[in-house]
Specification:
This protein is mainly α. It has one domain. It is built from 9 helices and no strands.
């Protein structure tokens, strides 16, 4: 089961979403709808991969891997690195894909922003548990990309949801404002 064959398309998805959101000209609704469908399929593939992966872990180890974070802490040292990397990559991709879908249609996909925040908080909690337990492997390798994506998502939550709370401004067919998207990409580490 290869996660990597699916992950390689995420940079292109991110780039095209950014182009749509930052376009100076009106974007056809059909273009946005088609791209949302494409990104939803990508996200569904990730979820399907994760279900199969968890089932495989449970079969090989004869346990229920309900909370993969806790489960990874019990893995033999020879296997933990691969599992931490895979799960961290999966979470990073889920946060990014879900947030891009929300950015393309906030009114329609508000749940995805809620889910992004839940996943990001889970990463933050895991980071805290790893630090308190002095688990250098989990806190170092797991956190590398995943923590920065989660932190950027948590740090920009207020900007991304403010119009829902204050004005109810997003109607169906409206994308997230470009400046909010740029705040997030800057939090992700982009220079401009």
């Amino acid at each position: 089961m290869s996660l990597w064959t699916h992950v390689v398309s995420l940079p292109d998805i991110f780039k095209f979403a950014e182009e749509l959101i930052s376009s100076e000209h009106p974007v056809l609704k059909s273009t946005i709808a088609d791209f949302i469908d494409h990104t939803l399929r990508f996200r569904e593939v990730l979820v399907s991969w994760y279900r199969k992966y968890r089932a495989e872990l449970a079969i090989f180890d004869n346990i229920n891997a309900y909370d993969t974070f806790n489960y990874l802490d019990c893995r033999p040292c020879s296997n933990i690195l691969q599992h931490v990397q895979l799960y961290g990559t999966y979470l990073s991709c889920m946060i990014l894909a879900s947030r891009l879908i929300f950015a393309l249609s906030p009114a329609r996909f508000r749940y995805f922003e809620v889910q992004c925040q839940d996943l990001a908080e889970k990463v933050a909690q895991r980071r805290g548990r790893a630090r308190s337990a002095n688990q250098s492997l989990s806190s170092g390798l797991f956190i590398t990309q995943t923590w920065w994506i989660a932190k950027a998502t948590i740090d920009t939550k207020a900007e991304w949801v403010e119009n829902f709370v204050e004005h109810g401004r997003y109607g169906d067919g409206y994308m997230l404002e470009n400046w909010k998207f740029k705040v997030w990409t800057k939090a992700l580490g982009r220079k401009s």
